[in-house]
Amino acid sequence: MKLSFHGQSTIYFEANGKKVIVDPFITGNELSDLDPSTLEVDYIILTHGHGDHFGDTVELANRNHATVIGSAELADYITTNKNVENVRPMNIGGKAEFEFGSVKFVQAFHSSSLTDDNGIPVYLGMPMGVVLEIEGKTIYHTGDTGLFSDMKLIADRHPVDICFVPIGDNFTMGIDDASYAINEFIKPKVTVPIHYNTFDLIKQDPNEFKAAVSVGEVQILEPGEAVKF
């Protein structure tokens, strides 16, 4: 399995012959190395509805006939308003098996909405983190979140090989809380910092985060680089 990072919170992997992307924010993301007009995916996993995560979901889903996996409200929204045909609604605590592996959504402390054509925010269900079990590895993508103690419970229930964790501050955990989450609660074998430097409000030095983490290995990835494990 090749597991790669593509700016902001976007990760991509291929497993069991299927191509999967999480939070495909490509268009408008100057840090992304992907081209949404040529990218091939079979599944799209969404942690929540904000534009910097929802991103190119509709184009990718419709062009590839890909299945979108996300909250029930988000699934209903894109089916009704965006004409996306293949959706799998899920919710916090639920686990499902797919061709590439399993998906279990867990809580995240954040918000979730998109702005409609009238400039009104549309609520799209609870934000979520996601635990993926793929080819013998457990991957925890926390989604956008603040620090919360049940991260320990999640990791106790699903010992984490690779964790993608936001460090950008302002909208999510910053370096202090993110490093505490890794050191005290999640304790993964490999940590990859995400959700930083895409915008001025979330400018951070990932090397400061790396220095603050005392468990496992921190891998700072440039867009397009893959996790080594």
List keywords for this structure.
229 residues, alpha/beta, 7-stranded mixed beta sheet, 6-stranded mixed beta sheet, 6 helices, 15 strands, 29% strand, globular
What's the pLDDT, averaged over the residues?
A: 97
Task: Please report the number of helical segments.
Answer: 6
- Count of distinct strands: 15
Biggest pleated sheet: 7 strands, mixed
Beta percentage is 25-35%
**How is the largest sheet built, in terms of strand order?**
7-8-11-12-13-14-15
The H-and-E topology, N to C, reads as EEEEHHEHEEEEEEEHEHEHE
Instruction: Return the structural class.
Output: alpha/beta
Helix content range of the residues, please?
10-25%
Unreliable stretches, pLDDT < 50, 5 or more residues? Answer: none
Radius of gyration in whole Å, from Cα?
A: 16 Å
* Silhouette: globular
> What is the terminal-to-terminal distance?
10 Å
Structure description:
The structure is a single chain. The chain has 229 residues and is α/β, with parallel strands linked by helices. The protein contains 6 helices and 15 strands. Strands 7-8-11-12-13-14-15 form a 7-stranded mixed β-sheet. A 6-stranded mixed β-sheet has the order 1-2-3-4-5-6, covered by helices on one side. A two-stranded antiparallel ribbon has the order 9-10. Helix 3 (72-81) links the parallel strand 5 and strand 6. The chain starts with a strand and ends in an 11-residue tail after the last strand. The model has no long low-confidence stretch (mean pLDDT 97).
